[in-house]
Amino acid sequence: MPTANSFPALYFPFRLVIFYLFGMLFWRMLFIYFNDVSEIVPVISAAFRLDFSMICGAFLLGYIPFILFHIFGKVFWVKVTRIIHCVVWAFVSIVEFSSILLYKEWGSTLDNRAISYISHPQEAWASVRDFIPWEVIFFGLLILVAGMKRLWDLFESWTPTRSHYFQSVTWLVLLWTFGIFGVKRWLAKITYRAV
After folding, report:
1. Which of 99, 122, 124, 128: disulfide with 117, CB 3.0–4.6 Å?
2. Range of the structural domain that residue 166 is part of
3. pLDDT for 12-49, tens place per residue?
């Protein structure tokens, strides 16, 4: 029989989805507050679909070490998976924070025009420095740090499942398929908008 700690590892994707959904919801709330958005429900509803596709992509980035952990049971693969998702969360937080600030100035979120500013950081800073409220910085950092702490804790007490192999393999294959499907939907939306 699997040990009590087998399932936190095997069903980690459920917890990851919940973490990202709540994390992105907090970013959306900060976006709505800072930009005085009146239509709250449509914004959250539209963002939810893209967020879920992003979560599928985030999971797939750590899928290989996640599988290797279940095969070999080495703690090393847990650490690799943890680092991958912490980097993803930090990247997502930076993008979301930047989008919050840029929307008020440009009327759009982070896009190619904003990314072009990376080569000219002085211009990017001059574009936003005069209207960044300290409370937005505070809550943005709070979301980042609290999210990082919660994400780090998701990887505690993992144990590979050493029984019920058929169910485990079937579950992992389904996760891969579902993740690919989610990413393809996201890419389809991006392509459609670009056209």
Report:
1. 124
2. 6-194
3. 777 888 898 899 889 988 888 887 777 777 777 777 77
